[in-house]
Amino acid sequence: MNSFSYVRPDEIDVAIDDLSVHHAAKFIAGGTNLLDLMKENVERPARLVDINRLPLQTIDDTAEGGLRLGALVTNADTAYNEQVEKRYPLLSQAILAGASPQLRNMATNGGNLFQRTRCYYFYDTDMPCNKRKPGSGCGAINGYNRIHAILGTSDSCIATHPSDMCVALRALDAVVHVSGRLGERTIPMADFHRLPGNTPQYDNTVQPGELVTAIELPAKGFADHYAYLKLRDRASYAFALVSVAVGLDINNDGTITEARIALGGVAHKPWRRPESEEQLVGQSASKEVFQLVADSIIDGAKGYGHNTFKVELARRAIVRALMQASKLEKIS
Amino acid sequence: MQSTSILSAEVTVALPEKSLVTLTINGEKKQLELAPWTTLLDALREYLDLTGTKKGCDHGQCGACTVLVDGKRINSCLTLAVMKEGASITTIEGLATVDENATVQLHPLQDAFIQHDAYQCGYCTPGQICSAVGLMNEGRAKTTDDIRELMSGNICRCGAYPHIVDAISEVMQIDKNS
């Protein structure tokens, strides 16, 4: 790890100002990803601004009937929060599918949004990586790319976003609150993470000096019909090869009135295709309908060799998650 | 051109100051002077001689460094000591108690690990036991499947998992066949 200076402000404004006026400064909260990357020399901040004492530690009801998750509430406290478990079980399940209990006790909601890719070439400073070192090339495209993206890729980068939580947040249409020197603004989850294009060094649309203060969940939680299906190389504590978050609204007569389907492990951001979800509206739940929708969601998916299996895996995972959410198949 | 130009350009910044960090370790208040980049794990092992907590992967992947911070289990390799200012830390050395006759009473989990032969090389054991204490504090595990899932952050390369689950389920009074 490189040497760095350290401060621990108590106020949001002080933290934002400190980050803005110091060269190569970074916020640190749980530290589970940042410190790991610093040990690998992938991140080399000159200053750490510890935000753990800022007043962003609560989960509160919103006036709109939703829930506001403080940026510094841990992943564990969020997943086990009574309101989250009851009203947003999809989010609770997705969080608990990620990392380990120890890491979930440390990792924060804000930090989870900023997780960086687990691409091996990004982590290895001896390898080319356009995300770590713009212009150096991509080792993964023609290299070992088993864990890499099949949708929304570019010639510069085929990295995936590793989060489980963010896949559920994307399905739930969560909104991220950020604060900066110019004031506060909100970013819908749809626009928070970005596709790599020719600037893969930018994971998201947060501007330098901005601080995530909260994640807001809209009232609709899909608590009656939901599923988070995560497929990985071992039974627990591994990143997703493919994951699917599903939320369905189903009428008393069995007609689907709304569908949300978000994919993890397949792209640079949680992947959704709203026009495919629309195909489910007005339909009754059935495997045949779900297969058509799955084909539509992964339309255009492209494998790079080692990860080509993900195309079929994603298709089947979408169908299975929809079967589980509509209760046509039991969750095993 | 001098070949050392890159190096000499970089080494112009003075090293940041060490700072005083106060931690309560196994019930005792300790004050340490630490550089900010000292992890909690290194503080325990290198500055407090508490070498029961093990350094395995040093990247939060193996769980050997698990300690309890204010009762919650964390990976001590992925946090800086300075970030835990004022916190109460429990390590494997702090689990046993000593009664008025100076007799050491092992923690029930320590006893159960011995009874069930829940280790081979023993390197992961302090982390396994601290993690299991955290698991019991959380109160979420109801079955042995739950124990396996919620202990997945602790790797045992000897493969003593069945006995580890036996030891924990006995202390938690969970049916071994659940």
From TrEMBL, chain A:
Q: Name the UniProt key words of this record, in alphabetical order.
A: FAD, Flavoprotein
GO MF annotations, alphabetized: FAD binding; oxidoreductase activity
In what residue span(s) does the FAD-binding PCMH-type domain sit?
1-222
| Pfam families (UniProt xref) | CO_deh_flav_C, FAD_binding_5
InterPro entries for the chain: CO_DH_flav_C, CO_DH_flav_C_dom_sf, Diverse_Substr_Oxidored, FAD-bd_PCMH, FAD-bd_PCMH-like_sf, FAD-bd_PCMH_sub1, FAD-bd_PCMH_sub2, Mopterin_DH_FAD-bd
The protein's matches in PANTHER family, at most eight in alphabetical order, are given as: OXIDOREDUCTASE (PTHR42659:SF1), XANTHINE DEHYDROGENASE SUBUNIT C-RELATED (PTHR42659)
Stated name of the protein: Xanthine dehydrogenase family protein subunit M
Q: Give the organism the record lists.
A: Spirosoma terrae
From TrEMBL, chain B:
Keywords of the record, alphabetical order, are: 2Fe-2S, Iron, Iron-sulfur, Metal-binding, Oxidoreductase
Q: Which SUPFAM superfamilies match?
A: 2Fe-2S ferredoxin-like, CO dehydrogenase ISP C-domain like
Task: Tell me if Translocase is a UniProt keyword of this record.
Answer: no
Quote the protein name from its UniProt record. Answer: 2Fe-2S iron-sulfur cluster binding domain-containing protein
**Coiled coil: which residue ranges?**
none
Keyword Oxidoreductase attributed: yes
PANTHER family on file: OXIDOREDUCTASE WITH IRON-SULFUR SUBUNIT (PTHR45331:SF2), OXIDOREDUCTASE, IRON-SULPHUR BINDING SUBUNIT-RELATED-RELATED (PTHR45331)
Q: Which Pfam families match?
A: Fer2 (PF00111), Fer2_2 (PF01799)
Classification from the root reads: Bacteria, Pseudomonadati, Bacteroidota, Cytophagia, Cytophagales
Q: Which GO terms describe its molecular function?
A: 2 iron, 2 sulfur cluster binding; metal ion binding; oxidoreductase activity, acting on the aldehyde or oxo group of donors
All copies of domain 2Fe-2S ferredoxin-type, residue ranges: 19-95
**Could you tell me which Gene3D superfamilies the record lists for this protein?**
3.10.20.30, [2Fe-2S]-binding domain
InterPro entries cross-referenced by the UniProt entry: 2Fe-2S-bd, 2Fe-2S-bd_dom_sf, 2Fe-2S_ferredoxin-like_sf, 2Fe-2S_ferredoxin-type, 2Fe2S_fd_BS, Aldehyde_Oxdr_Iron-Sulfur, Beta-grasp_dom_sf
Organism of origin is Spirosoma terrae
Question: Which PROSITE patterns does this chain map to?
Answer: 2FE2S_FER_1, 2FE2S_FER_2
